[in-house]
Amino acid sequence: MAKPVIVWKSGKQLSARSVLSWRIAQTAVWLVGAFIMFCLFFFPSLGLLLFWNILIPVAPALLVVFTGLWRNVCPLATTILLPRHLNFSRRKKLSATQLGQLNFAAVVLLFIIVPLRHAIFNNNGPATGLLILSLAVMGIGLGLVYEWKSAWCSGLCPVHPVEKLYGENVLMTLPNAHCHECMNCVIPCPDSTPNIHPQSSKKTIWACMSGFLITGGLPGFIWGWFHVPDETSFTNISGFLDVYQLPFACMMVTLVLYGLLSRYFKGTNSRTPVSIFAAAGVSCYYWYRIPSLFGFGNFGHDGLLIDLTHILPAWSISAITIVTTGFFFYWLVMRKKNNSSWVIRPPFGEKQVSGNQKLTV
Predict the structure, then answer these.
(1) Cβ atoms within 10 A of the Cβ of 322, count?
(2) 292: left (phi over 0), alpha (psi -120 to 50) or beta
(3) I want to staple 84 with a disulfide (CB 3.0 to 4.6 A). Which of 89, 93, 184, 236 is the partner?
């Protein structure tokens, strides 16, 4: 009996062996995620270290270079797409307005959750675990109703806006390890549209607002976030809300700067501000995150992975952050756009319309 193959639109074939390899990779990453979740509840110190100080610091660089890899193996996506793989999903299609609203909600959700790290999640393993579980439940609920990745992975997931901002010029295109057929559930599809970025779609006011907010606001938001210390207790609600003040204030500054800069780049150069602000955002993240990982941060042990202050000179950490900044500006701004998508679009599928009739999409 001949081995089955999946034929991609590009002519590339994904053999049964390759499908199995991706399933093994997805399972392995899912088990790592499950282990981290277990630790967050039962060994909080270890869970917080693994999640906030190892997994999350690696994520931005991975999204810049290999967004498609993360889209293929993200453990939350693997969980959320189970209803579709097992044919439990109602497979409804989102309208452009619904998708835009979900994208806008994802940006808002990101800006709400991240400051709460200082207030709750950085020092509370069970709370972080409950946060992840809550997101998983939301995603599964959407996956039971809507087609493929449309409602969560390409809609409400708070990581997705960052994927679109950082992943606009990836190194290479990978096979799609989840969608074995394309049902045009999202237009434009973030996975298979070359060099997609947050402002690629302007179909609705929601899409425009979400693109503008994440592109212009993220660099200032990140800078402000790194100038707020972790808190372990609050005496009143105003103290709790203080974690939002500086990130939001700085976000407003860069939004204004982005709006002004965008006015001077039109036509073929309209993507230049997007690339500059994407590079500024990820560079700012590592400018502060790398020192804090190794004990050279602004607030003592906040975000500490391992203390190297007695081993490495401070200038060595500064040199690393300068190198990472140069790399990200080269990669996102100066490097030629290679017309690559995150993953290869699979063959177009057939949708059942009535009786035995099928409609090719």
Answers:
(1) 12
(2) alpha
(3) 89
Q: Calculate the alpha carbon distances from 176 to 22, 78, 200 in Å.
A: 9, 13, 21
Asked whether residue 272 is domain-assigned, the answer is yes
Question: Average pLDDT of each block of 10 consecutive residues along the chain (361 residues)?
Answer: 42 70 94 97 97 96 95 94 87 90 96 94 96 95 90 94 95 89 86 89 90 96 95 70 92 96 80 94 97 92 92 95 97 92 84 47 49
Round the CA-based radius of gyration of the chain to a whole number and report it: 21
Residue 358 domain flag:
no
Q: Within 10 Å of residue 154's Cβ, how many Cβ atoms?
A: 25
In a domain, 10, yes or no: no
Neighbours of 253 (CB within 10 A): 15
**pLDDT one-digit tens code per residue, 256-277:** 999 999 888 877 677 899 999 9
Structure tokens at 329: 């500006």
Domain of 65 in residue numbering reads as 16-229+241-345
- If DSSP codes are grouped into helix, strand and coil, which group holds residue 197? coil
Amino acid found at 344: I
Whole-angstrom Cα distance, residue 75 to residue 133?
12
Q: Give me the pLDDT at residue 12, please.
A: 54
Burial 127-145 (b: 16+ CB within 10 A, else e): ebbebbeebbebbbebbbe
Among all chains, which residue has been given the structure tokens 């909080």?
Answer: 44
Q: What tokens appear for 153 in the block?
A: 């992975």
Domain-located, residue 274:
yes
How far apart, in whole angstroms, are the C-alpha atoms of residue 190 and residue 154?
7
- Chain centroid, CA 285 distance in Å: 14
326-346 pLDDT, tens per residue?
999 999 999 998 889 999 888
Peptide bond into 188 cis (omega under 30): yes
Residue 233: what pLDDT? 66
Q: Cβ distance 39 to 31 under 8 Å?
A: no
State the pLDDT at residue 116.
93
Burial per residue of 8-23, b for 16 or more beta-carbon CB atoms within 10 angstroms, e otherwise: beeeeebeeeebeebe
Cβ atoms of 7 and 18 within 8 Å: the answer is: no
Q: Which two tokens stand for residue 268?
A: 């073929």
